[in-house]
Amino acid sequence: MATINRRDFLRGTACLAGGMALSGVLTAAYARQGMSFAEYRQHDALSLAQLLRNKDVTAQELLELAISRNETVHPLINSIVLDHSDLARTSLENGLPQGPFAGVPFLLKDLGIAMAGTVTTQGSRFFQDDRAEGDDPFMRKVRAAGLVTFGKTHSPEFGNNPSTESSLFGYTRNPWNTELSVGGSSGGAAAAVAAGILPVAHASDGGGSIRIPASACGLFGLKPSRGLVPIGSGEGEVRGGLSAQHVISRSVRDSAALLDVFAWSNPGRTFPDHSGADSYLSQVQREPGKLRIALMRSPLQPFPVDPQCVAAVEHAAKLCQELGHFVEEAAPEMDIASVGRSSGTLSVVSLAQRISQQEAALGREVTSNDLERANLELLEWGRQVSAVDYALALDGVHQAAREMAAFMDSYDMILSPTMAQLPPRLGEVSLDLPLEEFGPRASRMSTFASLYNLTGQPAMSVPLYWTPDGLPVGVMFAARHGDERALIRLAAQLESAMPWFDKVPTLAT
After folding, report:
1. Is the pLDDT of residue 272 over 70?
2. Is 56 within the bounds of a domain?
């Protein structure tokens, strides 16, 4: 089969769901023989869905391509740690809901998601046999979209590490340089997407866990606003509202279209019914207007920033100015040490709650053989937090959100590096370290990104810069709470001005 240029293909397909049919030449080409991996690699999830609707490929064919690709790269990157291929094949035999992504391969992160009949280990030996009886709200949305889940991706234990490595499953390696960290905690998802197993995968973010691995792997990662997407087994919050979940993707439009799928109406909590609002996907076709952007080169915490990360954010600032946006150096003022303590309190109490629930389910207490060293120390801290301290921590996070909202009365966006450093070598940021060593190393990786988990506002990592050695370095934009549409409009403009879709690691070619 002749190779088909992706841009030409996208001009012949719909940018929005239900659009134009493929050209006759392209349809005939796909009808003649099956899709190769090289051709599969040219498509994002929306264009795969369009091929499926036009019956130019089958869902079985796409699933087997994804499974085959994983078999090829798994020894190199170790991204998928739980195999649900047989369940995926069975779901195709039984028929899928006619959702917007019907038949498109998908992966779940092995953290915090209940998928009926399957284990979610949380990256921990203490949960390695924890099988779900039913689906949680997020998983129900995945199924309704028609996505075909064929496995779960590696996450460090309880997502508490910005590097994806665990005692249970080992290292997940960066496809751009397999000696380096892929970031975390959604590192398995990012590695799978970067390596070409699939174009988009589920991810979650409690302190940068979507944006950090997206930055490390040259991908797009959007953390939604607090409460916009369901998280956890019920309608409550996780980590006191610090966590959110969505996806890591190669294209902006996939992220936007899946936000339309995953966003929920949660009246009485955070978001009212938004069904009458313009879709997130439609924002890809709209201009962002002239934005007022605050450039924040340094984190609020006193961590040094790698020169390449500075170069990446300066490059992005210049690009934004060339696109007509106003950029000036500015940063919010807040007591970041106090807010950091609030974040820590919420996180460790959430860990203690999770462990206590599992102890009750197993009928035994957790031991030092069950958890990694730093998490054992965090658990001890969490079990000592008083109700008053927890309430004060919630107040601290809410105060940070108010202070940030006041700052953003003057700005539409904040631009900063996604990370303060390049991805470290594997093993340098490990939960097997004592907490006093692990904490500062992890905090430096997440110092920029974790700010927006505290404030609850949406933020995205955008792949606009590569180092002279060929390593991707993301930059981050944050918008006002609930203004994902503004982020998507800007992201689409940046993607058009400086495309990244065809920038893939050598491993993935």
Report:
1. no
2. no
Q: Is 37 among the domain residues?
A: no
pLDDT at 270: 58
In the predicted structure, residue 474 carries a pLDDT above the cut 80? yes
What residues make up the domain containing 381?
338-392
Q: List helix spans (H) across 120-235.
A: 137-144, 187-194, 211-217
- pLDDT tens-place string over residues 345-385: 999 999 999 999 999 999 999 999 999 999 999 999 999 99
CA 430 to chain centre: 21
User: Does one domain contain both 369 and 484?
Assistant: no
Identify whether residues 463 and 352 lie together within a single domain.
no
**Does 6 fall in a domain?**
no
**pLDDT per residue as tens digits for the range 123-172:** 999 999 999 999 999 999 999 999 999 999 999 999 999 999 999 999 99
Of 181, 185, 416, 461, the active-site residue reads: 185
- What is the total count of domains within the chain? 2
- Catalytic one of 47, 186, 204, 209: 209
Give the mean pLDDT of 202-218.
98
Confidence (pLDDT) at 273: 52
326, 361, 392 - which closes a domain: 392
Same domain as 231, residue 155: yes
pLDDT: is 432 or 232 the higher one?
432
430 tagged catalytic? no
Catalytic residue check, 185? yes
321 lies in the same domain as 377 = no
With CA atoms as reference, report the closest residue to 445 among 179, 126, 161: 161
Q: Residue 271: what pLDDT?
A: 57
Q: Which of 79, 109, 223, 243 is catalytic?
A: 109
Look up 209 and say whether it is catalytic: yes
Residues with Cβ < 8 Å from 213, sequence gap 6 or more?
164, 182, 183, 184, 185, 186, 187, 189, 190, 191, 203, 219, 221, 248
303 and 342 housed in the same domain? no
Q: What is the CATH number of the domain that holds 489?
A: 3.90.1300.10
